[in-house]
Amino acid sequence: MRNILALVAAAALVFAGVGWYLGWYEISRTTDSDGHQNINIDLNNQKISEDLKKGEQKLHDLISQKDKDSGVQHVTPPPPPPVPVTPSLPAPTIPTGFSTPPTATSPPPPPPVPSTQLPVRSNSAPAPPGTDILPVEFAPLPVPPPAPSVPPSVPLPLPPR
Fold it and tell me: Residue 88: its pLDDT value, please?
């Protein structure tokens, strides 16, 4: 939030400085006979719009000059071709779950998807002849041996100094 406020403040200061330098506004102060001071700010909107157009033109000229030096050409794409108007089509029907016989214009039905479910059988039953299913043997996981008991260590005597 602070950064946004700082950005707005910086933009206002830049606008004030550039505007005063380019004559976009004039600030005048007058004093009445009663001692009242009047401050008048006169904005020159025509001058602001002219300067902005000049700056935009200079920017375009600078970019085109840079592009000419580097060999880059900006080409505007042609407008898209007109879209042909098709006669109104009947409203699409909502499928109700009933299948309709295929017509000459409908695409053929997709091929059936093979089942990804594997046959389940027990370990003890032999595999049927002619199948590629091998019997599955489950071996129990090895149990690590218990940790040996370590006698408590005896502190070593320190050498004399």
Answer: 64
Separation CA 143–CA 126 (nearest Å): 29
Half-sphere exposure of 125 (CA within 13 A, CB side): 8
SS3 62: helix
Between the two ends of the chain, the Cα-to-Cα distance in Å is 68
Q: How does pLDDT run across 53-98, given as a tens digit for each residue?
A: 998 999 888 888 877 777 666 667 778 887 776 666 666 666 665 5
Distance CA 5, CA 11 (A): 10
Report yes or no: 123 and 138 within 8 Å, Cβ to Cβ: yes
Handedness of CA 81, 87, 91, 93 (dihedral sign): negative
Q: Quick one: which H or E segment has residue 43?
A: strand 37-43
Contact 92, 104 (CB under 8 A): no
